[in-house]
Amino acid sequence: MQYISTRGKAEALDFAGVTLTGLARDGGLYVPAEIPVLSADEIRSMRGMSYAEIAFIVIKPFVVGSVKDADLQAMLGDTYGDVFRHSATAPLAQVGVNDWYLELFHGPTLAFKDFALQLLGQFFDHFTKEHASDKKLTILGATSGDTGSAAIEATRGRENVQIFMLHPKGRVSDVQRKQMTTVREDNVVNIAVDGTFDDCQALVKACFNDLAFRDQVNLTAVNSINWARVMAQIVYYFTSAVALGAPDRRVSYSVPTGNFGDIFAGYIARQMGLPIAKLVIATNSNDILARTLKTGRYAMDGVSATLSPSMDIQISSNFERLIFDLVGRDADQVQTYMDALNTSGAFSLSENESAHLRELFAADQVDDTATLNIMHRLYKETGYVSDPHSAVGFQAAQTCLHGAEPKITLATAHPAKFPEAVRQAIGVTPELPAHMSDLFDRPERMITLPSDKSALMTRITKGGWLNGDNP
User: Fold this and answer.
1) Are 142 and 204 in contact (CB under 8 A)?
2) What digits encode the pLDDT tens for the residues 430-465?
3) Residue 239 lies in a domain
4) How open is the CA angle 135-7-317, to the nearest 5 degrees?
5) Count of Cβ atoms closer than 10 Å to residue 362 Cβ
6) What is the largest CA-CA distance in the chain?
7) CB–CB of 85/129 below 8 Å?
8) Nearest CA to 374 among 364, 384, 359?
9) What's the confidence (pLDDT) of residue 223?
10) Is pLDDT of 265 > 70?
11) Which class for 167: exposed (0-12), middle (13-18), buried (19 or more C-beta within 10 A)?
12) Distance between CA atoms of 43 and 377, rounded to whole angstroms?
């Protein structure tokens, strides 16, 4: 399997290359040169299989030539075994006659990011051992809340890896912050940036686009700009759809959406042959994607803080991967749109591109009031406790999906990660699972930096956690 950049100027790479590279050297994102397709019989054969067994069928075509079958099976077994605290790994919970929550929060950090990042840690180990080097792999990432803790959990203590994780200071929940900043391994450096998640993400991309610095520190990515992240998330679309009757029954999904990686995985699952009727882009008040679907114009309009902070994003990086397909894989046109976004903060899709977008997706914006209302209604009518992000997805499903097929909302985080919002909605404070019950007693350590590329590069160059860092 070969991978190409959405901007057309970086060299094509195999799966090992894109995993270790992250962002393409031309500033684009890597996508498969061809999308593998599974037949209805192959999908039907997944019935009764474990999560790891289905993952092997889905992922194998994407890693051909880079990972041997036996190695892949071993990594998947390790990833989706005891690490996840539910026997089904990604269970479905019925919350209505035709409504389901796909619970993706049974991993070590209680968020859907664990599905991809636990596996990505395995790939990093595998490839760094194969390509032995004296230089450590430097991971640089930005998080709006959940990617950081999942990436740190997957890479903490690994000998050949050091990780620098940026989060917007004061704009993640206390639980999300503590999950990152209480990790004590010296290969982990948490950095609070004075700014928004978009500022953090811009710093990451700026460092990757500085090719001399990138080579100097052996930089790679854990954000969903790394194709391996998206690839791993395709699997749970297959497991959930098959559980509800696919391929002989269509399903629809509503996905709480910020950086567009999780819902893009659903788009790829559909391209692979999974009978998905509709994909719903569920946004909070930071509704750039919902506005784009309605108007055809992608225009930045600032970021406001909400009860669903992991979605407080306006530059959805993975949307570039979808644009690449919308424009017929015309890399020059993608570059034109991205240049316009950088210079004017906006670009407009053509009428045909907009029409194609609306054929594939629906979208809805759910503000904080509506979020609290649906959390309260779910609890009152079913006893189900939802986190605010998943509630945004559930409300969008009610608004946008009216067909007979099952409606699956991705439950992306455990409610205990957002106790204030849950308490405000239902008057009950959700408890952290036993393995995290002492989280607020653990000491923190992180450093604070301005939103400044030079300051960040200087700190990364010094290496992992230093005695001189201010905890």
Assistant:
1) yes
2) 999 888 999 999 999 999 999 999 999 999 999 999
3) yes
4) 75
5) 19
6) 60
7) no
8) 384
9) 85
10) yes
11) buried
12) 35
Within a domain: 327: yes
Domain total in the chain = 1
For this structure, is 380 an active site residue?
no
Cα–Cα distance between 109 and 76 in angstroms, integer? Answer: 18
As to burial, measured by CB atoms within 10 angstroms (0-12 exposed, 13-18 middle, 19+ buried), residue 49 is middle
Angle between helices 388-400 and 368-382 (to 10 degrees): 90
Asked if 316 contacts 260 with a C-beta cutoff of 8 angstroms, the reply is yes
Compute the distance between CA of residue 132 and CA of residue 363 in angstroms, rounded to an integer.
Answer: 46
Other CB atoms within a 10 A radius of the CB of residue 86 amount to 12
- Tell me whether strands 92-94 and 99-103 are parallel, antiparallel or unpaired: antiparallel
Helical segments of 191-297, H only: 197-209, 211-217, 227-233, 235-243, 261-271, 288-295
pLDDT tens digits along 346-402: 999 999 999 999 999 999 999 999 999 999 999 999 999 999 999 999 999 999 999
Q: Which of 113, 169, 278, 407 is catalytic?
A: 113
Query: The domain that contains 296 carries what CATH number?
Result: 3.40.50.1100
Whole-angstrom CA distances from 127 to 19, 21, 123, 448, 469 are 9, 12, 6, 32, 31
The two tokens of residue 280 are 């719903």
Structure tokens at 99: 């409504």
What 211-215 contacts at long range (C-beta under 8 Å, 24+ apart), as own/partner pairs, is 211/25, 213/457, 214/25
Q: Which domain holds residue 387?
A: 92-106+229-426
Alpha carbons within 13 A on the beta-carbon side of 176: 27
Mention every residue, 6+ apart, whose C-beta is less than 8 A from residue 374.
Answer: 366, 386, 391, 394, 395, 398
Burial 112-123 (b: 16+ CB within 10 A, else e): bbbbbbbbbbbb
Residue 375 lies inside a defined structural domain of this protein: yes
CA pair distance 320, 317, nearest whole angstrom: 6
**Residue 173 tokens, joined:** 């929940």
The answer to whether residue 314 sits within a structural domain is yes
